[in-house]
Protein backbone atom coordinates (compact mmCIF):
# COMPACT_ATOMS: atom_id res chain seq x y z
CA UNK A 1 0.00 0.00 0.00
CA UNK A 2 1.08 3.52 -0.68
CA UNK A 3 2.51 5.42 2.26
CA UNK A 4 0.57 8.58 1.41
CA UNK A 5 -2.89 9.89 2.12
CA UNK A 6 -4.57 12.33 -0.24
CA UNK A 7 -8.13 13.67 -0.51
CA UNK A 8 -10.15 11.82 -3.08
CA UNK A 9 -11.19 14.89 -5.01
CA UNK A 10 -10.90 18.67 -5.06
CA UNK A 11 -12.30 21.51 -7.12
CA UNK A 12 -10.56 24.73 -8.06
CA UNK A 13 -11.68 27.82 -9.94
CA UNK A 14 -9.80 28.61 -13.12
CA UNK A 15 -7.07 31.18 -12.53
CA UNK A 16 -6.90 30.51 -8.81
CA UNK A 17 -4.20 28.60 -7.00
CA UNK A 18 -4.79 24.88 -6.50
CA UNK A 19 -3.35 23.54 -3.25
CA UNK A 20 -3.20 19.76 -3.10
CA UNK A 21 -2.28 18.27 0.29
CA UNK A 22 -0.56 14.98 1.00
CA UNK A 23 0.15 13.28 4.30
CA UNK A 24 3.17 11.02 4.58
CA UNK A 25 3.70 10.61 8.30
CA UNK A 26 5.91 7.51 7.99
CA UNK A 27 8.37 8.99 5.51
CA UNK A 28 11.96 8.00 6.17
CA UNK A 29 14.96 10.27 6.06
CA UNK A 30 16.14 9.46 2.55
CA UNK A 31 12.78 9.28 0.81
CA UNK A 32 11.83 12.02 -1.57
CA UNK A 33 8.30 13.33 -2.03
CA UNK A 34 7.25 13.02 -5.67
CA UNK A 35 4.23 14.39 -7.46
CA UNK A 36 2.85 13.10 -10.74
CA UNK A 37 -0.38 13.74 -12.56
CA UNK A 38 -2.42 11.75 -15.04
CA UNK A 39 -4.61 13.59 -17.48
CA UNK A 40 -7.49 11.49 -18.74
CA UNK A 41 -5.94 8.22 -19.93
CA UNK A 42 -2.48 9.53 -20.79
CA UNK A 43 0.66 8.29 -19.12
CA UNK A 44 1.46 9.81 -15.70
CA UNK A 45 3.47 13.01 -15.99
CA UNK A 46 6.21 13.95 -13.57
CA UNK A 47 5.61 17.32 -11.91
CA UNK A 48 8.11 17.93 -9.13
CA UNK A 49 9.95 16.29 -6.25
CA UNK A 50 11.78 17.33 -3.11
CA UNK A 51 13.52 16.02 -0.03
CA UNK A 52 13.10 18.65 2.66
CA UNK A 53 13.43 22.05 1.06
CA UNK A 54 10.61 23.72 -0.81
CA UNK A 55 10.94 23.38 -4.56
CA UNK A 56 9.61 25.33 -7.53
CA UNK A 57 9.69 24.69 -11.24
CA UNK A 58 7.78 25.90 -14.27
CA UNK A 59 4.82 23.69 -13.45
CA UNK A 60 4.33 23.93 -9.71
CA UNK A 61 5.69 24.56 -6.23
CA UNK A 62 6.19 21.95 -3.55
CA UNK A 63 5.97 22.90 0.09
CA UNK A 64 7.24 20.29 2.57
CA UNK A 65 6.64 20.76 6.27
CA UNK A 66 9.64 20.93 8.55
CA UNK A 67 8.91 17.51 10.07
CA UNK A 68 8.42 16.16 6.51
CA UNK A 69 5.19 14.45 7.49
CA UNK A 70 3.12 16.33 4.95
CA UNK A 71 3.47 18.37 1.80
CA UNK A 72 1.41 20.57 -0.49
CA UNK A 73 1.58 20.82 -4.24
CA UNK A 74 0.68 24.28 -5.48
CA UNK A 75 -0.44 25.06 -9.00
CA UNK A 76 -0.27 28.88 -8.87
CA UNK A 77 -2.78 29.68 -11.61
CA UNK A 78 -4.86 26.62 -12.41
CA UNK A 79 -6.20 26.22 -15.94
CA UNK A 80 -8.79 23.84 -17.34
CA UNK A 81 -5.93 21.74 -18.70
CA UNK A 82 -4.76 21.07 -15.14
CA UNK A 83 -7.81 18.87 -14.55
CA UNK A 84 -6.26 15.49 -13.76
CA UNK A 85 -5.56 12.93 -11.07
CA UNK A 86 -2.59 14.03 -8.94
CA UNK A 87 -0.46 11.42 -7.23
CA UNK A 88 1.80 12.00 -4.24
CA UNK A 89 4.41 9.24 -3.77
CA UNK A 90 7.06 8.76 -1.12
CA UNK A 91 7.66 5.01 -0.97
CA UNK A 92 9.82 5.43 -3.98
CA UNK A 93 11.74 2.20 -3.93
CA UNK A 94 8.43 0.41 -4.06
CA UNK A 95 7.18 2.72 -6.79
CA UNK A 96 3.59 2.34 -5.78
CA UNK A 97 0.91 4.80 -6.78
CA UNK A 98 -2.10 5.32 -4.55
CA UNK A 99 -5.54 6.51 -5.61
CA UNK A 100 -4.47 10.15 -5.91
CA UNK A 101 -6.58 13.31 -5.86
CA UNK A 102 -8.89 14.06 -8.72
CA UNK A 103 -8.57 17.81 -9.30
CA UNK A 104 -11.29 19.46 -11.34
CA UNK A 105 -10.62 22.99 -12.50
CA UNK A 106 -13.87 24.80 -13.21
CA UNK A 107 -14.44 27.88 -15.39
CA UNK B 1 10.89 13.21 -30.25
CA UNK B 2 8.84 11.16 -27.84
CA UNK B 3 10.94 10.27 -24.78
CA UNK B 4 9.19 6.97 -23.97
CA UNK B 5 7.21 5.41 -26.77
CA UNK B 6 5.21 2.23 -26.75
CA UNK B 7 3.39 0.34 -29.47
CA UNK B 8 0.70 -0.48 -30.21
CA UNK B 9 -1.56 2.12 -28.66
CA UNK B 10 -4.53 -0.22 -28.81
CA UNK B 11 -4.53 -4.01 -28.84
CA UNK B 12 -7.67 -6.13 -29.15
CA UNK B 13 -7.25 -9.86 -29.08
CA UNK B 14 -8.97 -13.07 -28.09
CA UNK B 15 -8.44 -15.22 -25.05
CA UNK B 16 -5.63 -17.69 -25.37
CA UNK B 17 -3.60 -15.63 -27.82
CA UNK B 18 -0.01 -14.51 -27.29
CA UNK B 19 0.83 -10.84 -27.77
CA UNK B 20 3.69 -8.40 -27.28
CA UNK B 21 3.90 -4.73 -26.43
CA UNK B 22 7.04 -2.81 -27.35
CA UNK B 23 8.65 0.05 -25.47
CA UNK B 24 11.57 2.28 -26.35
CA UNK B 25 13.14 5.22 -24.51
CA UNK B 26 15.56 7.75 -25.96
CA UNK B 27 16.49 9.38 -22.66
CA UNK B 28 19.59 7.32 -22.03
CA UNK B 29 18.06 5.99 -18.83
CA UNK B 30 19.41 2.88 -17.11
CA UNK B 31 16.13 1.48 -15.82
CA UNK B 32 12.83 0.67 -17.50
CA UNK B 33 9.52 -0.48 -16.03
CA UNK B 34 6.15 -1.90 -16.88
CA UNK B 35 3.04 -0.78 -14.99
CA UNK B 36 -0.51 -2.04 -15.24
CA UNK B 37 -3.52 0.22 -14.70
CA UNK B 38 -6.71 -1.70 -14.15
CA UNK B 39 -10.32 -0.62 -14.47
CA UNK B 40 -10.21 0.92 -11.00
CA UNK B 41 -7.38 3.16 -12.23
CA UNK B 42 -4.76 1.88 -9.77
CA UNK B 43 -1.24 1.86 -11.18
CA UNK B 44 0.70 -1.23 -10.17
CA UNK B 45 4.30 -1.97 -10.99
CA UNK B 46 4.93 -5.24 -12.78
CA UNK B 47 8.60 -5.29 -13.69
CA UNK B 48 11.70 -3.20 -13.88
CA UNK B 49 14.95 -3.77 -15.74
CA UNK B 50 18.28 -2.20 -14.84
CA UNK B 51 21.14 -2.74 -17.25
CA UNK B 52 19.40 -5.77 -18.74
CA UNK B 53 18.80 -7.40 -15.39
CA UNK B 54 15.40 -7.96 -13.88
CA UNK B 55 15.39 -6.10 -10.60
CA UNK B 56 11.77 -6.15 -9.48
CA UNK B 57 9.31 -8.88 -10.30
CA UNK B 58 6.01 -8.31 -8.56
CA UNK B 59 3.60 -11.19 -8.11
CA UNK B 60 2.45 -11.25 -11.69
CA UNK B 61 1.59 -14.47 -13.53
CA UNK B 62 4.50 -16.08 -15.34
CA UNK B 63 2.49 -15.68 -18.53
CA UNK B 64 3.94 -12.17 -18.50
CA UNK B 65 7.59 -11.94 -19.42
CA UNK B 66 9.65 -8.80 -19.95
CA UNK B 67 12.42 -8.91 -22.51
CA UNK B 68 15.11 -6.28 -22.91
CA UNK B 69 17.30 -6.55 -26.02
CA UNK B 70 19.23 -3.44 -24.97
CA UNK B 71 19.12 -0.62 -22.45
CA UNK B 72 16.74 1.44 -24.56
CA UNK B 73 14.08 -1.24 -25.02
CA UNK B 74 11.85 -3.26 -22.70
CA UNK B 75 9.18 -5.34 -24.38
CA UNK B 76 6.34 -7.12 -22.62
CA UNK B 77 5.27 -10.56 -23.83
CA UNK B 78 2.01 -12.03 -22.66
CA UNK B 79 1.13 -15.67 -23.28
CA UNK B 80 -2.30 -17.31 -23.11
CA UNK B 81 -4.16 -14.06 -22.63
CA UNK B 82 -7.06 -14.02 -20.19
CA UNK B 83 -10.02 -11.68 -19.80
CA UNK B 84 -8.50 -10.30 -16.60
CA UNK B 85 -5.46 -9.11 -18.50
CA UNK B 86 -7.55 -6.34 -20.05
CA UNK B 87 -6.02 -3.10 -18.80
CA UNK B 88 -3.82 -0.21 -19.82
CA UNK B 89 -0.12 -1.05 -19.70
CA UNK B 90 2.39 1.74 -19.23
CA UNK B 91 6.09 1.64 -19.89
CA UNK B 92 8.36 3.98 -17.93
CA UNK B 93 12.02 4.75 -17.49
CA UNK B 94 14.27 6.43 -14.94
CA UNK B 95 17.89 7.32 -14.69
CA UNK B 96 18.52 4.77 -11.96
CA UNK B 97 16.61 2.26 -9.92
CA UNK B 98 15.75 3.33 -6.41
CA UNK B 99 17.90 6.39 -6.79
CA UNK B 100 15.59 8.51 -4.79
CA UNK B 101 16.38 11.56 -6.86
CA UNK B 102 15.32 9.98 -10.16
CA UNK B 103 11.85 10.73 -11.60
CA UNK B 104 9.93 8.27 -13.72
CA UNK B 105 9.07 9.14 -17.32
CA UNK B 106 6.04 7.32 -18.70
CA UNK B 107 4.84 6.36 -22.14
CA UNK B 108 1.27 7.01 -23.19
CA UNK B 109 0.07 3.49 -22.61
CA UNK B 110 -1.23 0.47 -24.50
CA UNK B 111 -4.88 -0.34 -24.00
CA UNK B 112 -5.22 -4.11 -24.11
CA UNK B 113 -8.68 -5.61 -24.54
CA UNK B 114 -9.09 -9.36 -24.33
CA UNK B 115 -12.37 -10.73 -25.68
Task: Please give a quick description of this structure.
The complex is a heterodimer of chains A (107) and B (115). With 107 residues, chain A is mainly beta. Chain A has strands at residues 9-13, 18-23, 33-38, 45-50, 55-56, 61-64, 70-75, 84-89, 101-106.
Q: Are there runs of chain A of 5+ residues with pLDDT below 50, and where?
A: none
Q: What string, H for helix and E for strand, traces the elements of chain B in order?
A: EEEEEEEEEEE
Largest sheet of chain B: 7 strands, mixed
Percent helix of chain B, as a range, is under 10%
Strand content of chain A: 35-45%
Individual helix count of chain B = 0
**Rg value of chain B:** 13 Å
Low-confidence runs of at least 5 consecutive residues of chain B: none
Number of strands of chain B: 11
Q: Could you tell me which chain pair has the largest interface and how many residues each side has?
A: A-B, 22 and 23 residues
Biggest sheet strand order of chain A reads: 1-9-8-3-4
Count every helix of chain A, treating DSSP H or I runs of 4 or more residues as helices. Answer: 0
How far apart the termini of chain A lie comes to: 35 Å
Mean pLDDT over the full residue set of chain A: 91
Summing up helix and strand content along with how strands pair, one would put the structural category of chain A as mainly beta
The span between the termini of chain B is 34 Å
Please state the average pLDDT score of chain B. Answer: 90
Basic shape of chain A: globular
- The sequence of SSEs of chain A as H and E is EEEEEEEEE
Anisotropy-based shape of chain B: globular
Describe this structure in words.
- The complex is a heterodimer of chains A (107) and B (115).
- By secondary structure, chain A is mainly beta.
- Helices cover 0% and strands 44% of the residues of chain A.
- Chain B is built from no helices and 11 strands.
- In chain B, the strands form 2 sheets. In chain B, strands 2, 4, 5, 6, 9, 10 and 11 form a 7-stranded mixed beta sheet that branches. In chain B, strands 1-3-8-7 form a 4-stranded antiparallel beta sheet, with no helix packed on it.
- The model of chain B has no long low-confidence stretch (mean pLDDT 90).
- The interface between A and B is medium-sized, with 22 and 23 residues.
Amino acid sequence: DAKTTQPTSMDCAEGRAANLPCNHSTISGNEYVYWYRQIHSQGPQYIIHGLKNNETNEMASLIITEDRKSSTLILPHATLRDTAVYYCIVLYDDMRFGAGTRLTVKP
Amino acid sequence: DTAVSQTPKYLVTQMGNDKSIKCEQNLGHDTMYWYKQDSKKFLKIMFSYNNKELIINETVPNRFSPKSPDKAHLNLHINSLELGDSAVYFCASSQALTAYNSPLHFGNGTRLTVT
